[in-house]
TrEMBL record:
Pfam families associated with the record: Methylase_S (PF01420)
The keyword DNA-binding is assigned to this record: yes
Native organism: Photobacterium damselae subsp. damselae (Listonella damsela)
GO molecular function: DNA binding; endonuclease activity
Similarity-based family: Belongs to the type-I restriction system S methylase family.
Protein name, entry field: Restriction endonuclease subunit S
Keyword Membrane: no
Keywords, comma-separated and alphabetical: DNA-binding, Endonuclease, Hydrolase, Nuclease, Restriction system
Gene Ontology biological-process entries: DNA restriction-modification system
Coiled-coil boundaries: none
Length: 425
């Protein structure tokens, strides 16, 4: 880190922070600010035409015609899985009952205060319940490192400056990842939809979106190529204590890959979950998982058996068809785009029907050519996937570095007083 340590330190008196600069104080939150939950408001009461933003525990919830606060404030999430998270609100706004509003009773830098509270990980103070939550009383008793106001201002400016620089690097990496994903999708789509030999004679597929395909390919619906959602009676004679892999939606990657780190007994998942077997292809059926490309060719199942979320379609290539080729087809742009247009249901509950998969028409090559296409895609994607991995690792490290830098700065582990910071921060 391009920074310097404080030379005169003292014990902080709290477990989570061993020492602070000698001229800083450790101060109870209740001794420097008034904490109070916001006002109750329902989603029915909110109005998109309202003049003022409504903040809940996790940030902006909507708009309303009235406001509860005016100024610059730190908000602490009070309830839910993300309780203890930190947001900022400024101007006129409505704070809901799910947010704790921090109202300092002395001069402080709002941004310094918010970042210090974030580092304190207030979510760890939540009560164990079906709906986790933290109370004002508990937060009030916590002590935070409190530097002089001039130093708060310098710390805030330093964090804003470094955050902007690092976030720009992260955005550049994300832009590279987006381009790599586009390239990946283009490679898959071209190969499975049009083939890998551009010199072969073609024919009109008589499918509007498809156009010309190799002349020797058959035009068929997928119902004649795959079996969808195989019946679990295939394993009904297995012992109930047989170990099988369990696949929640979180374990299914986008455009390939699946984590198989959860194992359960067959009898505990036989009812109420989706059955799959080794080398089956899974495709997410619900929004936004389908549009995001969640799907995989599954291999490595415990005892060759898996059960997973009911929000998966399971596809199995029939005899003389390739599961590898089938997976790449389900990852192609036309399959995802057309499938999205045929989703049914309302809002976040829209799903791709099984009928879309069965009736999807395209050119079908022979088994040998399907395998060659899959081999071709594998080879082309090896470099692309490696570059994706490297850029994702780089983002993770940049984010970790930024968090470490912020924590070290607000806790007095580095001294930023004499660092030259550009104007505007």
């Amino acid at each position: 880190m391009d920074n310097y340590p404080y030379f005169d330190m003292k014990e902080s008196g709290v477990v989570w922070l061993p020492s602070i600069p000698k001229h800083w104080d450790m101060m109870k939150i209740s001794h420097m600010a008034l904490l109070k939950s916001g006002e109750s408001i329902t989603s029915v009461e909110m109005d998109t035409s309202g003049d003022y933003l409504v903040y809940g525990g996790n940030g902006i919830r909507g708009r309303f015609h009235e406001f509860t606060h005016e100024g610059d404030y730190v908000l602490i999430g009070r309830q839910g899985a993300l309780c203890g998270n930190i947001n900022y609100a400024s101007g006129k706004f409505w704070a809901s009952e799910h947010a704790i509003v921090v109202n300092p009773d002395r001069k402080v830098n709002t941004f310094w205060l918010g970042e210090t509270l974030r580092v304190m990980n207030l979510g760890s103070l939540s009560t164990a319940a079906a709906q986790p939550g933290i109370s004002v009383e508990v937060v009030n008793q916590q002590k935070l490192p409190f530097p002089p106001i001039e130093e708060q201002n310098k710390i805030a400016s330093f964090i804003k400056w470094k955050s902007e620089k690092l976030n720009k690097l992260i955005e550049k990496k994300r832009a590279i990842i987006d381009r790599l994903k586009e390239k990946r999708l283009s490679i898959i789509t071209q190969a499975v939809i049009k083939g890998i030999d551009g010199s072969v004679p073609t024919k009109d597929s008589k499918i509007d979106w498809l156009g010309e395909v190799p002349r020797h390919w058959d035009i068929r619906r997928l119902r004649f190529v795959v079996n969808s959602n195989p019946v679990k009676s295939e394993v009904k004679n297995k012992d109930s204590d047989t170990l099988v892999s369990f696949v929640p939606m979180d374990s299914v990657g986008e455009y390939g890959g699946v984590r198989l780190d959860t194992v359960k007994e067959l009898g505990k998942v036989y009812d109420g979950y989706t059955y799959l077997a080794e080398d089956d292809v899974v495709v997410a059926k619900i929004t936004p998982c389908f549009e995001n490309g969640k799907g995989a060719l599954v291999s490595g199942l415990v005892n060759g058996i898996g059960f997973g979320t009911t929000e998966l379609h399971v596809l199995r290539a029939q005899a003389n068809y390739s599961n590898r080729w089938l997976f790449y087809l389900t990852a192609s742009y036309p399959f995802r785009q057309i499938g999205e247009s045929e989703m049914y249901g309302a809002g976040g509950q829209k799903r791709v029907p099984e009928s879309f998969i069965k009736n999807f028409r395209l050119g079908i090559p022979s088994f040998d050519e399907q395998e060659k296409i899959a081999d071709f895609i594998d080879g082309k994607l090896e470099h692309v996937d490696r570059m994706l991995e490297l850029n994702e690792i780089a983002i993770t490290r940049l984010e970790e570095y930024l968090l470490t830098l912020i924590e070290a700065t607000v806790t007095g582990q580095i001294d930023v007083r004499d660092i030259d910071i550009p104007e505007g921060y």
